[in-house]
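Encode chain A's predicted structure.
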Amino acid sequence: MNYRFFPSTTGVHALPSIAMSLGLFMSASCGGDGSSSPDAGGNTGLPELGFATPTEATTAYSEAENGWDLVGPADWSCLGQTSTEIPTTTDITLSGALLDFQTDEPLVGGAMTLYGDEGITGTELATTTSDEDGNYEFTLPAGQTHWAFKIVAEDALDTYSLNQYYDPEIAAQSDDIDSVSLLTAQALPAFIGVTRTPGLGIIAGSIRDCNGNVVKGAVAAVSDALNVANHVEGGVSYYFSAANTSLPVRHSLQSMTNTDGVFVTIELPPGQERFLQVWGFVDDADLADGEMTLLGQVAAPIVADAVVTVSLRPLQQ
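Encoded structure for chain A:
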């Protein structure tokens, strides 16, 4: 399977690697099903929300040897509760490898920038360059809760990674970080049958429940308003096949997150006031009343001709 999970002493905190698939969205645009609507492909949608309505309550899956195993109903018990994620209490030495998203090959000479709670529009906290073996090392200063990275490498798209969380008390930790190559970026557009508009951006992510399991049955949006699905014009979300090589598919085949929880939103105009949101039905009662719940949300600026990846966890205070 083309998935890589980064270990964390506080639980899984990073995206599944969508290596063979994410890059194609640099060749993708709205209209993947012959229409500019996110509900193209015959799905029943909510026009005021701009995405298809899930047909089931959210369920949780865990990674298995040959796919994904059903755990049961997604656990949203922490939704709306006070977050247990806290600022780092010590400087952390973070080390690992800079890797090509598709091949897992180490990248030499990649320029890497570290950001803290302000995200990629905030202050640069540190910079480094991957060495001849593709390895890097950062010092994460105490006092920050979430971390972001910018990667600039030869023959690669600028790649951003947002909303990373590390154990606040462990002084030495490791994490491999990915960069999306131009080769990957030019690959596989036929899977959703679309062409790219230059100058627009892409954001990709996955959603996990309170137990860290990936979630099936949710829908994604990029909004220009906090807590409201006020869709950015042109942005269209696609969901993945969750097969051995998970690939994005047309809306007629998958209109909500699959058993791998992965999604991507394309054709996004650049802008700073952007919020990646995931909505869904918490349980059968939620499904019955037809009102979706905001399950996860992260401030996520959109960058022209670049890929932004985001780790989404349940929305908390």
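Residues 19-82+189-312 form one domain.
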